[in-house]
């Protein structure tokens, strides 16, 4: 069966986040870009790519809706489904809430009663009305898989049509506030060889609606707390907020990591740049991408960091941000030839960010110029981000690479 999809929707995103990423359990995802909707009804959409990452109890759900007639509320138009996968794309509906009334844009509901989920549970939604629009489905990476079926799916089903490269905008959470994204490293501090590093930040609205967001700064070496420094930003429609040094704007300094908390409106595009400020000689630096809770490194995942080709001209630092639990990492050193040199084990406490020199993470194990460091987390570890940052000792120009798991 061919399902038609209408085009040209502009999204308005609403997301409220707590400052403790570890406390929230989420399932599904809200995308910041535009999208479209399928006009078929009834239609069930299921997000396979963003399952629950741990057990918890969901209390709120948010969806984005589009293409309803202007100023129209579609009554009894939406059901929320919670599904448990048994194998492949075979799933069973174990909970349902609604039907709910919907309107174009933001729709947030209380789940009454709350819905308990376990790791790997999925979220879906059923759009019910005829000629009253539907759930916004945004374009995404090829890896984003979703299911759809032209019915109100109940019980166990294995016959969902599977699509790629799209994200249905449905998200449920255990809290009214959930961290939307993370900037793994930010800083405003003096470095080695006369350097001074700052973090420039641009936040760009892609919406005709205002955005209300909060940035929360967690200093390095300390456990993240609910009263860590933060700044509220009111971003007008289609506007861009510019900060030459976001930590100075917050009255802070030092090295740390940052959460983006979206209180209302559409998630902005985030451009973060860590740079060496050489005054009248200009700047040099690198871009740090905002990451989501679904991008983290998980227990038993492996990632690598390249070692500079010269350890005289370049220095290597390794940053690690943890979340819900302590993270224990086996750190292996490998020569350019592929020969194994040796390994060390380090543990970083939960809800903490630390940046180490390469020598610190190796704990006395030799590091070969032009080789690599390989990190594997233990089965009992929590989730984390790991990055490598290389700086030129002569110019203080830097590069950054977030570890990609495999």
Topology diagram in text:
Elements: E1 5-9, E2 26-29, E3 35-38, E4 43-47, E5 56-66, E6 74-87, E7 90-102, E8 105-117, E9 122-127, E10 134-135, E11 137-139, E12 145-149, E13 156-157, E14 161-164, E15 166-168, E16 170-173, E17 181-190, E18 196-204, E19 211-219, E20 230-235, E21 240-243, H1 246-249, E22 254-264, E23 269-277, E24 283-288, E25 302-306, E26 314-322, E27 327-334, E28 340-348, E29 353-357, H2 358-362, E30 372-377, E31 384-392, E32 398-402
Antiparallel strand pairs: 1-3, 2-16, 3-11, 4-9, 4-12, 5-8, 5-10, 5-16, 6-7, 6-9, 7-13, 11-15, 12-14, 17-18, 17-22, 18-21, 18-23, 19-20, 19-22, 23-24, 25-30, 26-29, 26-31, 27-28, 27-30, 31-32
* Secondary structure category: mainly beta
Range of strand content: over 45%
Number of helices in the DSSP assignment: 2
Mean pLDDT: 88
Largest sheet: 8 strands, antiparallel
State the helicity in percent bands: under 10%
What coarse outline follows from CA principal-axis ratios? globular
Low-pLDDT residue intervals, each spanning 5 or more residues: 1-23
Number of strands: 32
Distance between the termini: 36 Å
Q: How large is the radius of gyration?
A: 23 Å
Précis, in short:
Helices cover about 0% and strands about 55% of the residues.
Any key phrases for this structure?
406 residues; mainly beta; 8-stranded antiparallel sheet; 7-stranded antiparallel sheet; 2 helices; 32 strands; disordered N terminus
Could you walk me through the main structural features you see in this protein, from its secondary elements to its overall organization?
The protein is mainly β and 406 residues long. It contains two helices and 32 strands. The protein has helices spanning 246-249, 358-362, and strands at 5-9, 26-29, 35-38, 43-47, 56-66, 74-87, 90-102, 105-117, 122-127, 134-135, 137-139, 145-149, 156-157, 161-164, 166-168, 170-173, 181-190, 196-204, 211-219, 230-235, 240-243, 254-264, 269-277, 283-288, 302-306, 314-322, 327-334, 340-348, 353-357, 372-377, 384-392, 398-402. Strands 17, 18, 19, 20, 21, 22, 23 and 24 form an eight-stranded antiparallel sheet that branches. Strands 13-7-6-9-4-12-14 form a seven-stranded antiparallel sheet, with no helix packed on it. Strands 2, 5, 8, 10 and 16 form a five-stranded antiparallel sheet that branches. β23 (269-277) and β24 form a beta hairpin. The longest helix is centred in the last third of the chain and has 5 residues, at 358-362. The radius of gyration is 23 Å and the shape is globular. It starts with a strand and ends with a strand. Residues 1-23 have low confidence and may be disordered.
């Amino acid at each position: 069966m061919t399902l038609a999809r209408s085009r040209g929707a502009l999204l308005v995103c609403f997301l409220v986040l707590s400052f403790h990423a570890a406390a929230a359990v989420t399932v599904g995802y809200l995308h910041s870009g535009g999208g479209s909707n399928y006009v078929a009804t009834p239609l069930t959409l299921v997000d396979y790519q963003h399952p629950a990452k741990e057990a918890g109890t969901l209390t709120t759900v948010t969806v984005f809706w589009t293409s309803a007639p202007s100023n129209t509320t579609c009554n009894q138009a939406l059901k929320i489904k919670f599904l448990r996968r048994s194998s492949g794309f075979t799933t069973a509906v174990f909970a349902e809430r609604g039907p709910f009334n919907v309107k174009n844009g933001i729709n947030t509901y209380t789940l009454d009663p709350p819905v308990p989920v376990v790791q790997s549970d999925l979220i879906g939604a059923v759009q019910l009305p005829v000629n009253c629009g539907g759930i916004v489905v945004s374009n995404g990476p090829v890896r984003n898989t979703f299911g759809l079926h032209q019915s109100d799916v109940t019980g166990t089903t294995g016959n969902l049509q599977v699509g790629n490269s799209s994200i249905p905008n449905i998200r449920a959470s255990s809290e009214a506030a959930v961290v939307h994204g993370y900037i793994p490293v930010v800083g405003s501090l003096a470095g080695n060889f006369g350097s001074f590093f700052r973090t420039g930040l641009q936040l760009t609205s892609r919406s005709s609606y205002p955005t209300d967001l909060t940035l929360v700064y967690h200093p390095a070496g300390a456990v993240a707390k609910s009263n860590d420094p933060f700044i509220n930003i009111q971003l007008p429609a289609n506007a861009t907020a510019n900060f030459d040094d976001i930590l100075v704007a917050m009255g802070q300094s030092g090295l740390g990591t940052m959460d983006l908390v979206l209180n209302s409106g559409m998630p902005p595009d985030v451009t973060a740049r860590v740079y060496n400020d050489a005054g009248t000689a200009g700047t040099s630096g690198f871009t740090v991408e905002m990451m989501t809770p679904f991008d983290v490194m998980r227990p038993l995942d492996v990632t690598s960091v390249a070692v500079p080709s010269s350890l005289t001209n370049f220095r290597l630092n390794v940053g690690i941000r943890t979340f819900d639990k302590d993270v224990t990492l086996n750190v292996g050193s490998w020569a350019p030839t592929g020969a194994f040199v040796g390994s060390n084990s380090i543990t970083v406490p939960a809800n903490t960010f630390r940046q180490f020199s390469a020598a610190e993470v190796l704990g006395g194990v030799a590091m070969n110029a032009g080789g690599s460091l390989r990190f594997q987390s233990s089965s009992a570890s929590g989730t984390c981000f790991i990055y490598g940052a290389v700086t030129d000792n002569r110019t203080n120009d830097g590069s950054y690479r977030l570890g990609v798991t495999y």
